[in-house]
Specification:
- The structure holds 4 protein chains of 4 kinds.
- Chain A is α/β, with parallel strands linked by helices.
- Chain A has helices spanning 61-68, 91-97, 114-120, 130-135, 139-157, 173-186, 203-219, 231-237, 255-260, 262-269; strands at residues 21-32, 35-46, 50-54, 76-81, 84-86, 99-102, 191-195, 223-227, 240-245, 248-253.
- Helix content of chain A is 36%, strand content 23%.
- In chain A, a hairpin with a 2-residue loop joins β4 (76-81) and β5.
- Chain A is globular, with a radius of gyration of 19 Å.
- Chain C is of the alpha/beta class.
- Chain C is built from 11 helices and 12 strands.
- In chain C, the strands form 3 sheets. Chain C has a 6-stranded mixed beta sheet with strand order 6-7-8-3-9-10, sandwiched between helices. A 4-stranded antiparallel beta sheet of chain C has the order 2-1-4-5, covered by helices on one side.
- The termini of chain D are far apart.
- The chains are: A alpha/beta, B mainly alpha, C alpha/beta, D alpha/beta.
- At the C-D interface, β1, β2 and β10 of C face α5, α12, α14, α17 and α19 of D.
Amino acid sequence: MNAPAMNLQSGRDDGIAVGEELLSVSNVTLRFGGVTAIQDVSFDILKGEIRAIIGPNGAGKTSMLNVINGFYHPQEGIIRFRGEARSRMKPYEAAASGIARTFQNVALFTGMSTLDNIMSGRSLKMNKNFLTQMFYYGPARDEEIEHRRRVEEIIDFLEIAHIRRQPVGKLPYGLQKRVELGRALALEPDLLLLDEPMAGMNLEEKEDMSRFIIDVNQQFGTTIALIEHDMGVVMDLADRVVVLDYGKKIADGQPADVQANQDVIDAYLGVPH
Amino acid sequence: MFYREAGQFKTNYKADQAIFPILQDRVGLGLIIVVALLVPVFGSDFLINSFMIPFLIFALASIGLNILTGYCGQLSLGTGAFMGVGAYSCYKLATIFPDVNILIHILLSGFFAAGIGCIFGLPSLRIKGLYLAITTLAAQFFLEWCFIRIPWLYNYNDSGAIEVPQRTLAGVPITGPAATPEVRYYVILALVIGLTWIASNLIRGRIGRSWMMIRDMDIAAELMGIKPLNAKLSAFAVSSYFCGVAGALMVFMWLGAAEVESFSINVSFQVLFMVIIGGMGSLIGCFMGAAFIFGLPIFVRVLPDMMGFAMNASTVDHISRMVIGALIIFFLIVEPHGFARLWQIVKEKLRNWPFPYG
Amino acid sequence: MNPAFAGFIFSIQFPIVESIMSTAEEIAPAETILEVNNIEVIYDHVILVLKGVSLTVPRGGIVAILGANGAGKTTTLKAISNLLGAERGDVTKGNILFKGEEIQSLSPNDLVRRGCIQVMEGRHCFGHLTVEENLLTGAFTRKDGSAAIKEDLEMVYNYFPRLRERKASLAGYTSGGEQQMCAIGRALMSKPDMILLDEPSMGLAPQLVEEIFEIVKKLNSNEGVSFLLAEQNTNIALRYATYGYILESGRVVLDGEGAALRENEDVKEFYLGVGGEGRKSFRDVKHYKRRKRWLA
Amino acid sequence: MATETGALDTFPKFLLHNAKKFGERPAMRHKDFGIWQTWTWSEMHEEIRNFSVGLKALGLKRGDKVAVVGSNRPRLYWSFCAVQAIGGVPIPVYADAVAEEMVYVLQHAEVRFAIVQDQEQVDKLLSIKDDLPALETIVYDWERGLGDYEEDFLHNFGEVQAEGKKQLAQSGAEADWIAGINEGKGSDLSVMLYTSGTTGKPKGVMLSYDNLVVSSQNANKFDNFDETDEIIAYLPLAWVGDHIFSYGQSMTAGYCVCCPESPDTVTENRREIAPTYFFAPPRVFEGLLTEIMVRMEDAGNLKKKMFHYFLDVAKQTGERILNGESTSFMERLKYKIGEFLVYGPLKNRLGMTRMKVGYTAGEAIGPEIFKFYRSLGLNLKQLYGQTEASVYITAQPDGEISADTVGTPSPDVEIDIADNGEVLYRSPGVFMGYYKNEEATKETKTEEGWVHTGDAGFLDSNGHLRIIDRAKDVGKLNNGSMFPPKYIENKLKFFPNIKEAVAIGDGRDYVAVMLNIDLQPVANWAERNNIAYASYQELANHPMVYDMMAEHVDQVNLDLASEERVAGAQIKRFLVLHKELDADDGELTRTMKVRRTLINERYELLIEALYDGSEEKFVETEVVFEDGRKGKISATVKIRDAEVHEALHRSGAMKEAAQ
């Protein structure tokens, strides 16, 4: 028997070629009560790219991700995913349409093992009904095993085999972040939103995480949007960067250009890096 | 010590995903089942009637509540009432369709409980935690009220109680006064084993995972494509089904007759204690919790006799209440995660033996 | 054959050396404010997290504990501030001296009264209180009257002008950086001699990280507060710390003056990301790892 | 379909044979994706065949040399057979060798193909590609990170197999392949193994199929191995032992070889598999024992007491039961209880529950360590072997076990002791010669086929061989006393706290040693005794560690004093090194043997200090990282004197030994 080949490419044949627009945010404004979290922001994410969103704390970056995957519904503006404008979308509908994400402070299922956490990412792809589940042996088990195989590929990919059976609650933070990435990958998303994937990591862990992000992007062709504070990471990984400050977009472009932008330096970087 | 896992390796996922992947666990389970089967051979009727039967029935109810609370994270105080729904519907079914086998009625009665459970589960979509517990408490009171105020439910009896008719299975009486404790015990044992098996199947599959996802982090669950409505209501339904069957068993195969007090808030709390003491999110815990909560009072009451003290009944009762209360508090301080966790630690220690840790 | 070694290997008898370290001799000279001796921490009775960690914080120093996630940095801080119990952790060996006094049996509360306070990772501000109310909760243990507290509040606002701007906002609605400041400010309100700071840079924008470390430095030089900080961001931590300890798998593997550590080849390679020709690109990371040579 | 002709004299022929005979039996397992992926002999046959044909399509020809670099992974083992099927010669290379080390071997062997494990090895080869004009093709097993490498001579293992499969679809391809196998003869060169050697450049030992097949078959017979056995492959591929145990014997006996998930998980994986046959050099057994003791230190008092009580019981009765000697009922009862409470669980934790035979070789094993395992009821034995002999020279037959001999000559092996005490042997396993090194071949192998082992030893009255030391290492002190360095070092290394020791003394006035502490037990001891330390260096330099070492040295001196021949070689001065001796720095061979000359050069300053009476010495040492980059570490190393004991009378020594 041969080792199964890695095959996690997002399966959708959506007719969007690499480099075409996958998601666009047009003139989005989001308010909570009297507070405006996002004000008239527009940008796009192209298929196959790594798009970074940077900005000071409280600039509305996380709110932006929440808008994209349906936690918040903006008062104004249009979001198009794969060319379709969408109205109030629920998070689980966003997931079904191919958007996965990770959270700034890790939102894992703490009572479950690494394996089960990543298995949970396969929920959408499993469809055996209640009756078969009740008796397990048979179709339900076959389905379970089929997905276990895919999950094991992700575990192998992320090099977390040694914590497969451990409850995630007790894992060190860096590994939790990796498990969370694994869970998001299990959805086989077209668009992966990463909210500060490297926060609280040391260099070695950042290097690992960078490698995973690059591999996900290159091997599976997954489009990635990430919020990150480490400018080294942003410079090296991102194809394009959008900069938010107090809910407004202040810059958008190639990493080098953004880094040299005086507004960005004033609002975010402090000293030119 | 007993665990000798060297050489037990898995070459396929089927074996790796088994509920008991370790040989020694399978042997242990087998032994327990054999012992359970032998109880009537060696045990007295008192043991069977006063302990084994109610223990199994309450273990089943605990599994029901544990599915909802331990696995899906939705606190409920309406267990007693859901058991009542099972009991009353079984009673109605048995009187309306007297020719259908009583076992089928018992299994069907769970569906009525499931339906009612779903209705009272609806608020869980909006409210959580303690607030949800209060709505289930409302369910408890409302249903209790129904059991009293809707005489149709108890066939307009003067006593207001439901009484179990005699029914047979393959010619052997299994309900009613003529049914021997041994027969009732075996029937219950078979049902409990079967239903526990089904519960364990559900829990380890997609559905069980969706419950746990909701329990652990509902926003992340939604992002994985879980619809909260489906997950929560299915947990309420399955949970209530188990409670309903347990309620029907309680009346039909143990008490023989019941009125509304049998399903009071006290029962809800008793089952909740079993789940907490046994361990949230553990099926084995349900059995251990039921054995502890149900067995301890019996033990405390029997103990003075065994040691030769003569004490009047009310003193024994008072002492036993105090002792049980103290024991529960003590236990929860020492091991807040219940027997299941304790067992897990012991097992881990045994697996690591002779080393102190792995 | 070998008579001298006839003792079966099981009875490995480590030589009992006569001069067993007397704690009396070891009691730190006056300038040491915190001393951690050889502590071992076990979680859940089974998981060994710290294996003999020792460190010293001089009065008025900024000492950094560095290392990967899971190396035991946070655990070390929690062992000091006695917050392990909540996580089913136990200090099973070693001792901890704060101002020469053993503190393992003190509650976190007592410790605050003695002048040692921890700012936890993830900040833990009271989200439903305003920034100012949050700060005032920090003065909870003080008995020196409202005037003094008022004065200190003013001091905190001087160090953190941002907090003054936002003093009436609910802490839950402030940004991560402001919450971090609020948490440090709240700690300051207890007039501590020593602050244990867990991951102050976590999740903060680069500019804010600088700002917070500048304030730490100022507090250190102006108010004489000693700091023990656990930090992932080795680069910045070593710029501000006078002394650093590098933890790996629950053990101190390297320690030294901040400046010396910055020059250490391994630290450069594994923690600062500086290769032979300046910063390495994250795109060039290999799929295999070079072994660390700490122990050689 | 596979058709056999003639004798089973090459491994590819055995493959065809096994695919038929053991078709559905497991041939190889690999812990991957969470479970033990298993290949039956017929599946493995198919994998190898596809790859072999694919290699042929890439241009591999009869006689080509193929380097195989990586850890124990099924595909690398398959490579051996796939290459041999075409008539090529596999050359396994130590995977942890740095690039410069690798250049020599690959150049010397003129390899045309390299089959490597992963990106790390590919990078290494690419970095030295310019020095290897003969190297044309690199095949890699694991593609992680190699996606964007554009070199056209790089091929993915799976793709090569796919190509092979495609070719096999054409008629005649399979027959061609089998014809190629049948062209192979027993006298053909089967494999070339480079011995690292403690001195000089590595030499390529050429072994024929006849050498390996006969040795493997003899070994299988000696210990009754058949297709039902399972072993775990974790030793370096480039080492002759692994080649015989995990390839030769598996092919000839048909047993299953299990590859661990990664080198870090060997212990855990061994526990899962519980191999029936286990081979390990003494350091592995030492390490396991040390770990057991360290972990038991943390146990509760009662448990500790029980543990040590039953180990005492085992010490008294275990070996006697194992050897079938008579024991009283009480003894057997106590042992049974011990088996339930301690030995059984311990063997279970070690993954030795199913072990029929265990071997240790390569170095002297501490008698206590050896006895410990045997007392648990494990049939641990010693053997003595060499690459040049296809491993087996002597081995201990069941029931004739002792800690200080290495057994009787293996089947078909003749032993002779030269006048200078050197051990010579002659056997069917004797190598063909050193590759491109006639001179060395002649030096080692006589016209009559006797091979010089380079070890000094003698046959005892029972016909068991005893090894004293490397013949050329035994030196003399200035006062004429004999100086056997390894003998002294081994005595030191038998202490769990000492990891390595280097003895100096040849042509000097007295013996001095440099020690390496073993971090695990010493650190644990430090914790228990409340000794603060920050780094390895600080711990190594700690006065109390020195006290501890002084005690060990003193014990060794006492021990030496009791043996007439070596009483003069007692240790006068010692120091504890500030860094671990390391193969990456060239101080040890890849098989963890001390390289004396190099150490003498590197630590010249320290050695000087050992003889000039200094109390301490500041040194700066260069260290090499795995990727070949260099760094420096510095330290002030202290030096201590040790007490020298009066030589005890032989009779006294005997008496004491008898106690």
